[in-house]
Amino acid sequence: MRTMAEKLHMFLPWDSVAGMPIVDLMAVLILISCCFIAGLVARSGWGRALQKRIDDLLLQFVPGYAWIKGMTSNVSKEEEVAAMLKPVWIRLDDQYQVGFEVERCEDGLVAIFLPGAPDPRTGTLSYVESDRVEGLALSFSEVSRNFRRLGLGSAAKISRSKISIYASA
After folding, report:
1. Do the beta carbons of residue 96 and residue 83 sit within 8 Å?
2. How much of the chain, in percent, has pLDDT values that exceed 70?
3. Fewer CB atoms inside 10 Å of the end CB: C or N, the chain?
């Protein structure tokens, strides 16, 4: 911004305003203007469409992007993250496993990411029947924290009483 402001400064007849160099003032104004314009573009329909396309490409080609996006999102984007990686219980024969629902397939299967511990960014992708999947009343970050802590302290949050399948069995 300073380089750009120095080039524009050649066209101005004065060097300072109230002792502040014009170049610095212009650099700040250019930066604020760029941020304002970027905000307007981001709020427009085509700006959102472009952001979605870029997001889809990153999800497809950058390993771990969905995870990073989930970990860095703020509270106002919680619904977006929950829709992208929804914490779920998966019933597997004689055990339950915590994972993240990635998407539902047309044939009734559900794509599930089963994170590893202590690094929940790694894991496996499984496809299970939808009747084996049930939503979990925890946030993305709570579930991630449980994996990083190897489950320590999770008993208070995750218990058999929170699995409605037991109530119906």
Report:
1. no
2. 73
3. C
